[in-house]
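ligand=zinc ion
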Amino acid sequence: MATLSFYGAAGTVTGSCSMLEVGEQRFLVDCGMFQGNKTIRALNEKDFPFEAAGIDFLILTHAHIDHSGLLPKLVKHGFSGPIHCTAATADLLSFMLLDSAKIQQSNTERWNRRRQRKGEEPLEPVYTEEHARRTLELLTPHGYETWFEPGADIQVRYWNAGHMLGSASAEVKFPDDPSGNTMRILFSGDLGPEEKVFHPEPDAETGFDYIVCESTYGDRERDDYTLEKRRDNLRKELVRGLSAGGNVVIPAFAVERSQELLHDIGVLLARGELPETTVFLDSPLAKAVTEVFIKHAGSLDDVELDESQLFRDPRFRLVQDVEESKAINRITGGAIIISASGMADAGRIQHHIKNNIWRSNATILFVGYQAPGTLGYYITSGEPMVRIHSKEYLVRAEIRRLGNYSAHADQGELLDWIMERTPVAGRLFLNHGDDDAREELARLLSERGFDPEKIVMPRMDEIFELVAGDAKSKGRLPERIPQAELLSDWNNDYAALVAALTQRLYEAEDDAERRRIIATLRAAL
Ligand SMILES: [Zn+2]
């Protein structure tokens, strides 16, 4: 008998963390940071709903911060066991966790200055660089499809999940007392799409007792595309943007998305399909991660360039220093500027947007999902004016979007992956997705002949007893935050209101009308 608990990414997509208890041993699969609205992020500050020092080891599926970002907090609170992961994941984490710690520390410093002005006690960062460094010492790398034994009689092997460099699904097996049979559980981790540069499509064994599967895009189907088609769409955008005479600014995640773009742009440049340009990758993390990709170049799929040329085009500038980054501000046209964050809500990209968004010959090209409340969301929603670093900027640049740079399997691909893993003797747990996505996926699975009785949608902090092919809920721990707040909280409503008001005041005929608008609002209050 074993116990499976869901301590994150249940009914939401961040904070991935599951606990498996087998006899006296207990271990976690992932320990991710909660991301999104302020209410969700507050979970990062709260105590773990379990004893960190009582965890024997950890199985990590991949390096994304929503799966790995609370590892240093776990170490801070007494965890000292091995953290098992793939070799590429370990290399990525050596930069990503330190970067995350720096963000924690600088955010806390900023909040503390505000708290000090209000006479409030200072807060402690969730963790520091010191905790991140201690975490890195615990990383224990493994190859794909090779068994290892992290605990007594517990065996684990990783399968390629096709989601990002080093990403894996984790197969866990152990003797199931008292029957003496072996229990086999598969944790999908995040699954990649069929068409993804660098990585083959996800793979794993069949015939499990239990599967825990992500369902991020359970209710979304993407248009079919090929890597060549996507590259051609990028070419059209870049040619159009550069021909207009301004810069093309691309907000992109530092990990994987930046390297996909560099690869595609490198291919287009090598083929002579782009006008002469300089390509800036302005993110110290993206630069470091690009070096990790170069180290693992031999294991990358679908690479169109010679290994020695990959990411090394003479027109590429991988920027590290702040001074070098500031120098880009003087370039008013003809450059491609890739910078993080991907949703433009933090990081150096905000400076590049500030410098270009008011120029009518510039282009801001978005290549990923923009979460409500982020700067990227407001820009792509067609706001005529945006606020960056407490100043207003007119949106005169061409705002463009390019789809299909997704790292996630869509609905059809999730269904295929699950059906290819059948039969499932016990239960299929759908996690890492909101309720609409999980329900839609469950409905389509039963249409394909998957027994709906076997599908479970765990709630946050819900605990299950896995016995004789069944999963009995033992209930939930007391709520850490109200379930309704997981998806949207009042801070999002507030940000939208402020943006709408700013826009309305800007568009007003004259100051008299502006005063009328403000008077009406005050009266309503
Ligand atoms: Zn991920």
